[in-house]
Amino acid sequence: DQQVKQNSPSLSVQEGRISILNCDYTNSMFDYFLWYKKYPAEGPTFLISISSIKDKNEDGRFTVFLNKSAKHLSLHIVPSQPGDSAVYFCAASVWNNDMRFGAGTRLTVKP
Amino acid sequence: NAGVTQTPKFRILKIGQSMTLQCTQDMNHNYMYWYRQDPGMGLKLIYYSVGAGITDKGEVPNGYNVSRSTTEDFPLRLELAAPSQTSVYFCASSYGSGASNQPQHFGDGTRLSIL
Asked: Which of A68, A89, B40, B80 is deepest in the core (most CB within 10 A)?
């Protein structure tokens, strides 16, 4: 059963515009959510996280929003840059030692 | 500043062969993890360890074994390789879990093909 879903396999945006990546989950026990970024031939790298007690967390150009009632989170990147082009994974856990990942969304930022 | 190091980067095995994927971390992290990523899919947890001498199964443990004799090392063993184990394997580590909210740090992966 896929408890974390990223329904958009790919997203293309223009440089300078906003990128919005979406993620849905089914397990209401998840209390910690993360976004990872992955370049080809590299491992995922941590981008930003949010605890279930918050609904928003910002870090520079990256903001994660959590809507617990809808079991939905999103990652906003503003402004988008060509170097942001990568695969973005949404992840969720009840405890950090059993993390479930979505299938990823490939973001392409065009100059 | 090595972080999490995985070896080898690539490997081709024949069905029925065995091998060990190596993982070592130099961040003194207590928690270590093994994931596999199949094409078009997210990462799935195979095994994890919360400290030396302690391991536990994740979501997809069948066909694999692990050991954790030191804080630094967390090898993954495939005893009888099967085509279904063709995947990219990622090792990760973190300082804590749950309330510590420590993100996991990943190695660059081992691409394994079983023919």
From this structure: A89
> Domain A4-110: which topology?
Immunoglobulin-like (2.60.40)
CB contact under 8 A, A96 and B98: yes
The 8-class DSSP code of residue B73 comes to B
Instruction: Check CB contact of A95 with chain B, cutoff 8 Å.
Output: yes
C-alpha A77/C-alpha B21 separation (Å) is: 36
Q: Using CA atoms, how far apart are residues A37 and A18, in angstroms rounded to an integer?
A: 17
User: Which residues fall within 8 angstroms of residue B98, CB to CB, at 6 or more apart?
Assistant: A32, A95, A96, A97
Residue A30, CA distances (Å) to A34, A46, B89 in order: 11, 18, 24
Domains with residue ranges and CATH for chain B = 4-114 (2.60.40.10)
* pLDDT tens digits for range A20-36: 999 999 999 998 999 99
| Helix%, strand%, coil% for chain B, nearest 5 | 5, 50, 45
C-alpha to C-alpha distance for B93 and B71, rounded to whole angstroms: 10
Domain residue spans in chain A? 4-110
Nearest to A98 among B42, B58, B94 (CB): B58
